Amino acid sequence: MNFYRGRRLRKTASLRKMVRESAITPENLVQPYFVVEGDEHLEKPINSMPGQFQLGVDSLLKHIAMAAQDGLTSLILFGIPQKKDAKASQAYSDQGIVQRAVSKIKSAYPELVVITDVCLCEYMDHGHCGIIRDEQVLNDPSLELLAMTALSHARAGADIIAPSDMMDGRVGFIRKALDKKDFSDLPVMSYAVKYASAFYGPFRDAAQSAPSFGDRKTYQMDPANSREATREANADIEEGADILMVKPALPYLDIIRNLRQNFSLPVAAYQVSGEYSLIKAGARLGYIDEKKIVMETITSIKRAGADLILTYFAADIASWLKQEG
Ligand code: PBG
């Protein structure tokens, strides 16, 4: 018989492993954490994201200690301040919650890669990612606040700055501000291609950052667009981005592939809150096998071309991989 015998290389587990094209390693995974100002021992479950918590600084350090033991090497921080206002003061205060958490994490675990999300929505009383006038999100005046936020994260000891606001020109503006203050070696991971997605729903509960009016469609991208992803990536590269992120991940595998094929920078993908919660809900109902579905989705995101994956399953995956040896 003369036909292609694909089954030859699928015969045993060792053979399959030998020819496997994509592998998941804990070093490529980033665990997001929500850190809350106030009670340092807070550990409040997030209803819409089973298994995730709003954490006080102390509890955060405990969660990180466990995850690091399992082999997790990187995390991204989102802050929830006690006071929100119309100029996001707590986003760029050196005493802000993210700033304090970063310096504590870095002194306890200097080798961990600590990424900070740079955005204003969690710190604004209206929940939008920039300054508001007449119900419009103003682009250029918001850049100043974003740069101040990035700088204060840098001073606190962040290893990577990740702007997620989607204001135009922010990567270049932040890059310049960092360079001017001697942070020219601090990398910027840009949320370059961030869609206006319903998959962020659970996050907005978790971070208490839902916009009080309107939506984010005037600054985040239209899910129908693919060529626009190339334009956004080009702009961020020109402005000095070091890593390009696509967000969400699984419904946007074509976009991840586009960036991988057209650019040489590392590509990150964010498996967002809605992607996480859908899997959790399906598993809770007994419809799917959580672990298998998680590994398959993460593998798919890798296969599409992501070097790094931000996922709420990162710590779990690290511990599963460790158990398997
Ligand atoms: C802040 C930000 C959001 C997410 C990451 N950074 C929310 C949003 O843009 O509304 C979403 C992450 C997730 O859903 O897991 N702008």
Topology, pairings included?
Elements: H1 13-18, E1 29-36, E2 43-45, E3 53-55, H2 57-69, E4 74-80, H3 97-108, E5 113-118, E6 131-133, E7 136-138, H4 139-156, E8 160-163, H5 170-180, E9 189-194, H6 201-206, H7 227-239, E10 243-247, H8 253-262, E11 267-271, H9 273-284, H10 290-304, E12 308-311, H11 314-324
Parallel strand pairs: 1-3, 1-4, 1-12, 4-5, 5-8, 9-10, 10-11, 11-12
Antiparallel strand pairs: 2-3, 6-7
The structure holds ligand PBG.
CATH topology name of the domain at 24-243, in short, is TIM Barrel
Largest sheet: 10 strands, mixed
Bound molecules: ligand PBG
Distance between the termini: 40 Å
- The DSSP helix count reads 11
Low-pLDDT runs of 5+ residues are none
Beta-strand portion reads 15-25%
CATH superfamily of the domain at 24-243: Aldolase class I
- Mean pLDDT reading: 97
Q: How does this structure look, described?
A:
The chain is α/β, with parallel strands linked by helices. The chain has a domain at 24-243: TIM Barrel (Alpha-Beta Barrel). 39% of the residues lie in helices and 18% in strands. The protein has eleven helices and twelve strands. The strands form two sheets. Strands 1, 2, 3, 4, 5, 8, 9, 10, 11 and 12 form a ten-stranded mixed beta sheet that branches. Helix 4 (139-156) packs across helix 5. The radius of gyration is 20 Å and the shape is globular. The chain starts with 12 loop residues before the first helix and ends with a helix. The mean pLDDT is 97. Residues 117, 119, 121, 129, 164, 200, 203-204, 216, 272-273 line the site of ligand PBG.
